[in-house]
Specification:
The chain has 13 helices and 8 strands. By secondary structure, the protein is of the alpha/beta class. The chain has an 8-stranded mixed beta sheet with strand order 3-2-4-1-5-6-7-8, sandwiched between helices. Helix 4 packs across helix 5. The longest helix is centred in the N-terminal third of the chain and has 17 residues. It binds guanosine-5'-triphosphate and magnesium ion. Guanosine-5'-triphosphate binds next to helix 6.
Length: 313
C-alpha cells in the first residue's frame, strides 16, 4: 500500500493511459516527423489536455526540437516533460503567499465537486502545520450541508461557525469574520453552496458574501479558490471561466485525481487561465490533499521519466 502514496501512485490511471498510448510512440526509434507529432497531439487530446493546449504543446515541442537540434523520437519524452513543466509552473508564480491574519479563504464551485471535503482537508493541512483554523458553514442551501461541515469540525477539532439551513450565507460569513478576528485565528475557511453560473441569484449571493467579508477586512477574502472535479474533464474549463466572470478567483483546487485518467486537464487549466493550481485532491480521506508541485506533476504525467529527480523536488 505504501507505494500507492505519492503522486505517481495517485495519478496511476492517467499515467497508465498516457503510458499505453505514448509509450508505444516514445519507444520507436524513427525520426521526429509530422506523423509522430500528430500522433502525440492525438494522445494528448485523448488524455484530456484539451485540443488547443495539445496543439500548443506540440508547436512548442517542434520549436524546441529545432532549437536543440533534436530529431529522434526517443528524445520526445524529455522535451514533453520540459514543456509540461513550463506550462504548469508558469501560473504558480502568480501565487504570492499568505500574509494577512486571519487569512480568509472562500471556497466556490459547482455542485458535488468536493468543495466541503477540500475545505476540511485544508483545515487539517493548516492545523497540522501549527496554525489556528476556523471554518464557516457558508452552504446554507443544501440540506445537511451544515451538519457535514460540523462533523468535519468535530473530527478535526476545528471550530465551525454555522446558522440553520435556509439562513443568509452572507450573514454566516459576517459572523465568522467577527469570530475569527475576536479569536485571533490564523485561517478562516468559508464553505459555499454548489451552484451553476446560470443561477443568477446564487451567483449574486457569492458576490454578497464577498462584499460582507470585505466590510470587516477590505483585503478579504484573500483567496477565492474554485474547486473542480478532474473526472469532469474538459467541462472544468468552462466552470472556471464562468465563475471568473463573477468573482476574482485566486486559485484552483483539482479533486478526484485518484482514479481518473483525465489528469491532463490540470495542464489545460494551467495553460488556459492565469490562475495557480494550488491544491490537488487524491482521495476522500482528510490527508488526501497535496500542495500542487509543477515539477512532480510534470514528471508523473510523462511515461518513463527519471523518478529520482522528481522525488527530491
Ligand atoms: N475519490 C475522491 N473523492 C473525493 C475527493 N474530494 C471529494 N471527494 C468526494 O466527493 C463527494 C462530494 O464531496 P463534497 O465535498 O461534499 O462536494 P461539494 O462540492 O461540497 O458538494 P456540494 O456541497 O453538494 O456542492 C464526497 O463523496 C467526497 O468524499 C477526492 O479528491 N477524491
Ligand atoms: Mg459542500
Amino acid at each position: 500500500m505504501k507505494q500507492k502514496k505519492g503522486l505517481f501512485g495517485f495519478l496511476s490511471k492517467t499515467r497508465e493511459s498516457l503510458t499505453n498510448s505514448l509509450g508505444g510512440l516514445f519507444s520507436r526509434t524513427g525520426s521526429l516527423d509530422d506523423a509522430a507529432y500528430e500522433e502525440l497531439e492525438d494522445h494528448l487530446i485523448m488524455a484530456d489536455f484539451g485540443v488547443h493546449t495539445a496543439r500548443e504543446i506540440v508547436e512548442q515541442l517542434k520549436k524546441s526540437a529545432r532549437r536543440n537540434r533534436v530529431d529522434g523520437i526517443p528524445e520526445l519524452g524529455s522535451l514533453l516533460e520540459a514543456s509540461l513543466l513550463d506550462i504548469l509552473s508558469g501560473q504558480n508564480d502568480a501565487w504570492d503567499g499568505e500574509t494577512a491574519k486571519p487569512q480568509v479563504i472562500l471556497m466556490v464551485g459547482v455542485n458535488g465537486v468536493g468543495k466541503t471535503t477540500t475545505l476540511a482537508k485544508l483545515a487539517n493541512y493548516y492545523k497540522s502545520r501549527g496554525h489556528s483554523v476556523m471554518m464557516a458553514a457558508g452552504d446554507t442551501f443544501r440540506a445537511a450541508a451544515v451538519e457535514q461541515l460540523q462533523a468535519w469540525g468535530k473530527r478535526l477539532d476545528v471550530p465551525v461557525i454555522a446558522q440553520s439551513i435556509g439562513s443568509d450565507a452572507a450573514a454566516v460569513a459576517y459572523d465568522a469574520m467577527n469570530s475569527a478576528y475576536a479569536k485571533n485565528m490564523d485561517y478562516l475557511l468559508i464553505d459555499s453552496a454548489g451552484r451553476q453560473h446560470t443561477h443568477g441569484d446564487l451567483m449574486d449571493q457569492l458576490q454578497k458574501m464577498k462584499r460582507v467579508i470585505g466590510k470587516i477586512d477590505e483585503t478579504a477574502p484573500h483567496q477565492i479558490l474554485i474547486t473542480v472535479d478532474a473526472t469532469n474533464g474538459q467541462n472544468v474549463l468552462s466552470q472556471v471561466e464562468n465563475f471568473q466572470k463573477t468573482l476574482p478567483l485566486t486559485g484552483i483546487c483539482v479533486t478526484k485525481l485518484d482514479g481518473t485518467a483525465k489528469g491532463g486537464v490540470v495542464v489545460a487549466l494551467a495553460n488556459d487561465f492565469r490562475l495557480p493550481v494550488r491544491f490537488i485532491g487524491v482521495g476522500e480521506g482528510v490527508d488526501d490533499l497535496s500542495e500542487f508541485s509543477a515539477r512532480e506533476f510534470a514528471a508523473a504525467l510523462v511515461p518513463d521519466m527519471d523518478t529520482e529527480e522528481s522525488s527530491q523536488a
